[in-house]
Structure formats: C-alpha cells, structure tokens
What does this fold into?
Amino acid sequence: MSSNAVADVTGRGAKATVLVVACGLVIVPFLGIVSTSLASPDQVTRAGGFVIFPTGIDLSAYRSILAGGVVTRSILISLFVTAVGTVLSITLTAMLGWALSRKGTFGNRYLLILVLISLLFSPGLIPSYLVVQQLGLLDTLWALIIPTSVTAFNVVVVRAFFVGLPNEIIDSARMDGASEWQLFRHIGVPLAKAALTVVGLFYGVGYWNSFFNALLYISDSSKWPLQLVLRTYVVDNTQLGAEDLGAAGHALPPQTSIQMAILVISIVPIVVIYPFLQRHFAKGVLTGAVKG
It folds into this structure.
C-alpha cells in the first residue's frame, strides 16, 4: 500500500473517531436524561442519580409533574406564550418585511436604517425594563411576548425574500386592481412560505426556551413559564415537594427523576416539531441569503 493510501486511510480513521466521540458526547447525556426519567426509583437510587440503561419503564416521574401542580401550569403558560408569540411575531415580521421591500413605502429608507441599527445596538437591560414597566406589562404574560415580538435579523431575512420576488408578478396584480394589502396577502405571503417557516421556527424556539424575560419581568411564581421552572428546580437544584407538584399525599420518585422528566418535557416539543420544518429550513435560509 502506498504512502498516500496509508495517509488517506489514517485521515478517514481519524475523522471517523472524532465523529464517533462527538456523537457520543451528545447522545450519552441525552440518553442518560431520558433513561433516568423513565427508570424505577430503586434503580435511580442504586445508580446514584444517573441511569444509562433502565431495566424497566416507570412513568411515576411524569405522573408526578403532570398532576396539576407548578410544572403542569408552567407547561400551559409556555405553550400559550409560544403559540401566541410565534403567530404575532410572524405576522408583524412579514408585514414589516413587506413594507421595507416596497420602494414607494413612506419612510422606507429611514425605517430600514433603524432596523439595521437595532442589529448593532441593543437598548440595554434597564431601559427595556422601564419601558415594560411604563406599559404596565410587569407580571403579565404579555411581558414575555411583546418585548421580543419583532427581531431585526428576521425582518432582514423576510425583506430579502420579498425584494427578490419578480416585479412582473407584482405589476400584473396591480394592473388587475389588487391593493397593497391584497398583494401582500395573496402573493407575498404564499410565495414566502419557506422563509416565514424558518422565521417562525426561530421565534418559536426563542419563546419556548426563553427564561430571562420571565426572571426579569415576572415575580408571581404562578405565571412562570416552563424554562424558569426548569432553571429554579433543576439548575438551582431547589427541591420540589408533593404540594408543589399537586400530588399531596402521594409518594414521590427521587428528585433526580423528577428533574430529568422536566428536562425531557422541555426538549420534546422542539425535537418533535423540527423534523417537519427541516425541509423548509435550508430552502428559506439559502433563499434569503442569496437574494439579500
């Protein structure tokens, strides 16, 4: 075997080894989280709190956190914030992106400059808090939605797609008497479905995973979203009692099993939704990048 062939085989072996190690670093912790949440209390106790391969399936941890207590309530709040926030964000982003893509829009250039400036400079923590406070949004779920309802990056992506639409389609629709709203609704939005799907994924993941806004604006623990509960009871390792879980009078599984079950529930929605949107993801991002 020649030296070049040996070097090629060695290089491939090294790449395969690195890939296997990288996959193991990702898969093993995830497998451990799922396994620990499903393992029996005895096995979790014997293993010292972390199980890789459960000997059986025990759903007591999931039954405990879904019994109607703080975790159940936080899941419903996160679902509401994510659903309402994503729909609102896509709507506002699409409308603003369309307006910025039309050359005849009043103040188009200046508004676009403001959007681009916001990509470089953030308002800061204290000014943001004061704005939310003055709007009367403190301790309301709208404080988790409105401050992040429009992101400049997503506006730029959607605008780039709208700019790339053939002018012949727009001019033809205008000659048929279509208004600007009809152009946006019946031409712009249907053709931008891939880009809007990507933007919606960005917004949805952001709303679902966000905890800092809740930590900043929500002091009422009954209005905490799932991620803030996750931070409080998993990251900070605060103990969850039977009353917190709505399972008073029932024996609880180990705290580790409960914490791992909360982690799994926080991950599952994104893992389930992403494969259905993956085919739009590459198309939407590449289209926006090329046409921008």
Confidence is low (pLDDT under 50) at residues 288-292. The chain has 14 helices and no strands. Residues 3-46 form one domain.
